[in-house]
Amino acid sequence: MSKIKCFAFAMVLCLFLSFAQSKNIFAGDQDLTAEKVIAEHVKSIGSPSLLAGVKSRAFVGTTSLDFIQGGTGSLSGRSMFVSAGQKLSIVNRFTDVNYPQDYFAYDGKDVSVGYISPGQRSPLADFIFRYNGLFKAGLMGGTLSANWPFLDSSKKADMKLKETTVDGQRLYEIEYVPKLALRDLKVRMYFDPKTFHHVRTKYEVRIKEGDQSVRKQTTDPSTGARPSDVTVTDMKGNAYPGIPTSSASNDAFQVMPESIYVLIEKFDDFKDESGMVLPHSYTIDYSVEGQGHSFIAKWNTKFMQADFNKTYNDLIFKAQK
């Protein structure tokens, strides 16, 4: 066999083996289930005894906010993520007077969000205030949170597993429906098939044209305001309607045509922290389409320092307005 033919044969063999190995990422276990993926995922974080012993965790670092559509400019600042039991606080502080902070908190009972100016929430804050169940269910923050549902076997959910590709990366996708009702919020989680790290969660709400709904109103305990009473704005003071809710006078509301709300959490830069493998890059992408306008923004946080099993003042878990 000539050298050219040998080289060509070797190349074909390498390509075949590479393809076979990549296929085996998914095909190696024909009986793979969502439960098995989650079991491997929990192992990827740390040992059961270690995870059980960590009651609180805190992360601090830098953050940036980029307005892509529906606003202009970029902000930078400092970030703090504190989780203790069921409680969670996510704080991003900026130096811009028009957008001084994002503050989202859960005290184990109520979810509170901060304002960017008196009576005005950002589009992201409006979404979290409206769909606060993602905090109560322990979903927000992924494995950074001590309330991550897969760390507690008593938290039950319906799960469906499939294989998919996102941004060119092959992933396991789990459609996740917790017993705690999230109303019309759809949740999909994504896991790396090699490491079983949780790399993203997608939350999506689609409100179709002509829908009529009756919703129980959520009231802000600090102001008495309901979501429909609050205008959301971008950093330049441009006002947008919040997620459609009932008016102050009754609970039936007209849904605006073809409204789509998508919040995506992304996790990367996994490193060992006191025996646990946790992400140190945390990104939130939030977009709104419909209602005559579009809004797209990205929050990107890099955690530089972590601390565990400290005691925190409960005031941290109530958002400063």
What is the compact description of this entry?
The chain contains 5 helices and 17 strands. The protein has helices at 3-27, 34-45, 48-53, 123-130, 133-136; strands spanning 56-69, 74-84, 87-96, 99-106, 111-113, 120-121, 157-166, 169-178, 186-191, 198-207, 212-214, 231-233, 239-240, 252-254, 259-273, 276-290, 293-308. The relative contact order is 0.19.
Residue-averaged pLDDT: 82
Strand order of the largest sheet: 5-4-3-2-1-17-16-15-10-9-8-7
Distance between the termini: 77 Å
β-strand amount:
35-45%
Major β-sheet, in short?
Answer: 12 strands, antiparallel
Extract low-pLDDT stretches: 3-27, 212-218, 221-231, 245-256
- Using the CA coordinates, give the radius of gyration: 22 Å
Which geometry do the CA atoms define?
Answer: globular
Count of DSSP helices?
5
Helix and strand run: HHHEEEEEEHHEEEEEEEEEEE
Question: How many β strands by DSSP?
Answer: 17
State the share of residues found in helices, binned by percent: 10-25%
Class computed from helices, strands and strand pairing: alpha+beta
SSE topology:
Elements: H1 3-27, H2 34-45, H3 48-53, E1 56-69, E2 74-84, E3 87-96, E4 99-106, E5 111-113, E6 120-121, H4 123-130, H5 133-136, E7 157-166, E8 169-178, E9 186-191, E10 198-207, E11 212-214, E12 231-233, E13 239-240, E14 252-254, E15 259-273, E16 276-290, E17 293-308
